[in-house]
Amino acid sequence: MIEPTLALRTAIRSKLITTPAVTALVDPANIRSGSTRPGETPCIIMANSTTTLHGHDYTSQRAAWVYLDLHIWTHDQGADAAHEIAFAVQGALDKNLEVAGGYCDHFKVVRSAFPRDPDPAFGHGVLSMEALIRWIV
To answer: How would CATH label the architecture of 4-136?
Structure first.
C-alpha cells in the first residue's frame, strides 16, 4: 500500500481518465496533482490534501481519513465551463473507487465551490472530498 493520499489521488485520476464524460471536456494529460494555477486549460488539479491516521485493530489493519480538493480550471470558455466539468467529475466519482493495495470504505464529494479568479478569463471550481482508506500491514 502506498501512502493513503497518494493512493486516493491515483484512484481518482484513474477513474477520471477512463470516464468519457470527463475526457470529452478535459484532456487526460491535464488531470494531475499540483498546486498552482495551470498553464494549460481546461484542467483538473488534485491539491490541498490532508491525511488523518485512524489507528489500527487486532488484525493489523490500518485506516486513515483522507481529505482532498480537486481544482477545476478553465480559460476563455465562459462562466459555466467549470460547472460542467465539475458535474462530469462528480458523476465519474459517484461509483466505488478501487485503491491499489487497500480498500476505500467511504468516499464522497462533500462540497463544491466556484470562487472568482482575479483574472475574469479564468473559471475555477473546487470539489472537496473525503475518503476512508483501509489497508493491511
So the answer is: 2-Layer Sandwich (3.30)
